TrEMBL record:
Ranges that cross the membrane: 7-25, 45-65, 124-149, 155-172
Keyword tags: Membrane, Transmembrane, Transmembrane helix
Protein name in UniProt: DUF5683 domain-containing protein
Superkingdom classification of source: Bacteria
Amino acid sequence: MNRRSRFLTFVTACIPGIGYMYLGLMKKGIQACVIFFLLEDILSIIGLGGIGNLIQFILWFYLFFDTYNIAHRMDNGEIVMDSDFFFEKYMSNNSNAVNNSSEFDSMNFKKKQPIQLDKKNMTIIAYIIITLGVLGIVNKFFAGSYVYYQIKEGITQYFIPVMLIIGGLFMLRKKEH
């Protein structure tokens, strides 16, 4: 069992996606890195650049702790396969689907099945897309009014500290049970 340097694991985990690459999970690392660094720009295009920072903050914590979790699993001898960062969790292979194309999996030489969203996850993604669209319209419509500015400032200043307090209380409560 070859243990990785805890210091290097910490340093690479601080940079989104790089920690995965340090652990040898290149596909997952590149996808996480691209998603993290393009997220704010993509949300800015639809007028939601302000929540991009919040989502990046949450994503950074997830990536940091997931990198540590995977490193711990690898150090305990578990084999962790490189997989998609995001898409594989929310999609499933439809084994009943017919694929007439000549695409083959390069490793197993099996015919690839088209990937389809699960019904539940498709509904969740649809609601997220609708919510982002509505938020983009509201942002454009009310931008410039005093009330909108005050609400946006309040959320920006207090949301993250309140979420940290709630998260800490949740962890303490869970520890007691």
